[in-house]
Specification:
alpha/beta; TIM Barrel; 8-stranded parallel β-sheet; 8 strands; 51% helix; binds hypoxanthine; binds zinc ion
């Protein structure tokens, strides 16, 4: 690896903000800011159990994953029309482009919406149109990944896949999210096998709160290409070796981990340990409206708290391109952009 000289903390923060990056772990429903939740509630005549934006924001105090999910699903209840899904995704993509995100792979949770009577067409068409328009506006590329909710049954996941298949050209892959503990990857072995036959990319949340065995089964049973979170892998030396050897990316979300108390403090985060062990770790925002910041805030705060260096910053941006599902030409264009920026900082 090339030698990269350290730079002063303020310059490092500038570099982190300026560097081109891909965001690979963002739940679009988790980008709904309280202001937009209230605007959509007003537009759609949905009553919210909070008096105003401040009262809603004050409820964002979480003790674990489930305490967050309860409020996250409640926030999504204001999404009813295609335009709502469009506005949400368009708002996120503008915000991401401002953080120099050049490519985003965006999770969406259709079951959260179809269970309330919203049509699959409404969800996918709104999100997809936002991705197309964002690329025209700012050049950012964006693709959708359909996530199955793991607290629901595999049968429900199969029904969701069926409903989505008429739109198969509008999403590139499938994922697995929601309550991890008690819902191991094996529960979804058949639906992931079907998605593999259909040619979809596959990712899964594993090892956020769950044990290393969930990461092993996401790899061996679901045959995923990336692990979302995955930070619990450090408990298992053999697993660490495998992730490094096979270059299986981890989409790490430091502020999410802090807010959901996966680590007591940001300073205790194991991102540096993952990178130093040669893992293809990346930095992402997960649910930025709920966890206190978009991708650049994740970078800047994590580097300030843990003392990571310019060498780590460069590795994280490179990893984000490698881990993405972009084609080789786009990846190499991103790497050139990054190298040009690095030269200006050396
Ligand atoms: N974990 C699991 N499910 C989720 C998350 C997460 O961090 N965010 C939104 N759904
Ligand atoms: Zn997530």
């Amino acid at each position: 690896m090339q030698h990269i000289k350290p730079i002063a903390p303020e310059r490092l923060a500038d570099f982190l903000r300026a560097m081109p990056k891909a965001e690979l772990h963002i739940h679009i429903e988790g980008s709904l800011e309280p202001e937009l939740i209230f605007a959509l509630a007003g537009r759609n005549g949905v009553a919210l159990p909070y008096a105003d934006v401040e009262a809603l924001r004050a409820a964002y105090a979480f003790s674990n994953l489930q305490s967050f999910l309860d409020i996250y699903y409640a926030g999504a209840s204001v999404l009813l029309k295609e335009q709502d899904f469009y506005d949400m995704a368009r708002t996120y993509l503008r915000r991401a482009a401002a953080d120099n995100v050049v490519h985003a792979e965006i999770f969406f949770d259709p079951q959260t919406h179809t269970a309330r009577g919203v049509a699959m067409d409404t969800v996918i068409n709104g999100l997809h149109r936002a991705c197309v328009d964002a690329q025209t506006e700012s050049g950012i590329s964006a693709a959708l990944i359909l996530c199955f909710l793991r607290h629901l049954s595999e049968e429900d996941a199969f029904a969701t896949l069926e409903q989505a298949l008429p739109h198969r050209d509008k999403f590139i892959g499938v994922g697995l999210d929601s309550s991890e503990l008690g819902h191991p990857p094996e529960k979804f072995s058949r639906v992931f096998a079907r998605c593999r036959e259909l040619g979809f990319h596959r990712v899964a949340h594993a090892g956020e709160e769950g044990p290393p065995s969930y990461i092993w089964s996401a790899l061996d049973v679901l045959q995923v290409e990336r692990i979302d979170h995955g930070v619990q892998c450090v408990q298992d030396a053999l697993l660490m070796q495998r992730l490094a050897r096979e270059r299986i990316p981890l989409t790490v979300c430091p502020l999410s981990n802090q807010k959901l108390r996966v680590f007591p403090n940001l300073a205790d985060h194991n991102l540096g340990r993952l990178l130093d062990a040669g893992l293809v770790a990346t930095v992402n925002s997960d649910d930025p409206a709920y966890f206190g910041g978009y991708i650049n805030t994740n970078f800047v705060q994590t580097f300030a708290a843990t003392g990571l260096t310019l060498q780590h910053a460069y590795a994280l941006a490179r990893n984000s391109f490698e881990a993405s599902f972009c084609g080789p030409d786009r990846k190499s264009g991103f790497r050139d952009q990054l190298d040009q920026l690095l030269e200006a900082y050396q």
